[in-house]
Amino acid sequence: MPRLWAVGCGLGALLVGAPSLARAQDTLPPPSAALIQAHMRLRGPEGHVCAINFIPTPCPKVRLAFTGDINLGSSFIKDGVPPDTQASAFAQVDSLLVGDLVIGNFEGALSDTLPAGKCDGAKNCFEFRTPRWMAQRLVDAGFTHLNQANNHATDLGVVGREETTHLLDSLGLNPYGILGAIAFDTLGAGDTTTVVAVVGFTTYPFAYSLLDIARAKVVVDSVAKLADVVIVTFHGGTEGKSATRVGPGMERMGGERRGDLKKFARAVIDAGADAVVGHGPHVLRGIEFYKGRPIAYSLGNFVTWAGFNMTGVNALNGVLQLELQGNGSFTSGRFVPLKQVKWVGAVPDRNRAALALVRRVTRLDFPTTGAVIAADGSFTQPPAVRRPAATRTRRAP
User: Does residue 214 contact residue 81 with C-beta atoms inside 8 Å?
Assistant: First the structure.
């Protein structure tokens, strides 16, 4: 196991010695105390990660799958906990959740006893307490990473957020998104290795902020020096059935600033991100390319058992599948259309309404930079941005 030890210690030393990362957020703890997670994943041969050895050459390809919002149920809501322990929620779509990394956005907190800790009686405020035993469903479905940088991570207060983090981590689900919690995975195939980093952003003080774009760029730039491939996810934007379009400038929900998402996404790509994937509006949005890197602005509600609107466009969602070269450049992409059925879960979208929606808003919002999306959901870069991948400063061997 010397390679695992060397990679783990090397990442830790580099992170502790990265002052730009420490300055990226005023509330970030000192680097030596940060919850940096260097996950060395070994799966295979059908699990897509075969081996790790001594040659630090990027893998030919990295396969990724992304979903939108996930909430398995809540004991705070009448009939909010599914009677079948969520056995059906992923049953018709788990074959899509395959890749080196399978990443979802986990909404809520996992606990059996903690009281509500966020709303304090406020109107139009929602809190979710998901029973702990339901977390195993996420493992069974195929997830490897779960984002906690969202507005429901503190539904049960800081204690509930930390309990959720610890439980997800104990199940091997690699939580990320809280300040300092950046996931690093070392993937291997034959005589090659690739380090993949995943960073989550949102608008709340316990996570990396998408509102402060200058600082976000510093965080991504620091991470890009340690990894071959950098993935950024964000939770932001306005919400609801009328939120399928990416807004110009700052988006808001009520009086809350939810981010200038186009400016943010392009800025973190300038800083070194290789793909940017969003969630938060609870509906699907378009896909564009910037400097050859894909940006998916929202993947909708993937599995949300209770407390969420699951009608009309709010029921439409999908799985985003990406394949990147070991240097982060885009190889191929596919959007698989799905929908939610109340009291069932995510199911295939036979009418392909989700795909039609993504294609339409992509054309409207990104007439020159939008992804060229085929009838089968596969997509490519638009001709205007098809160019060699930008030269990046990456980790030293």
Answer: no
Query: What's the predicted TM-score (pTM) here?
Result: 0.85
Q: Are 354 and 284 in contact (CB under 8 A)?
A: yes
Neighbours of 26 (CB within 10 A): 9
Residue-range domains of the chain with CATH: 2-385 (3.60.21.10)
One digit per residue, pLDDT tens: the chain, 397 residues?
222 222 332 333 233 233 334 334 444 433 333 333 433 333 333 333 333 344 445 556 899 999 999 988 766 777 767 776 667 889 999 999 999 999 999 998 898 888 886 776 666 677 777 889 889 999 999 999 999 999 888 888 899 999 999 999 999 999 999 999 999 999 887 677 899 999 999 999 999 999 999 999 999 999 999 999 999 999 999 999 999 999 899 999 988 899 999 999 999 999 999 999 999 999 999 999 999 999 999 999 999 877 677 899 999 999 999 999 999 999 999 999 999 998 888 999 999 999 999 999 999 999 999 999 999 999 999 987 655 555 565 665 5
Measured N-to-C along each axis, helices 261-271 and 213-224 cross at an angle, to the nearest 10 degrees, of 30
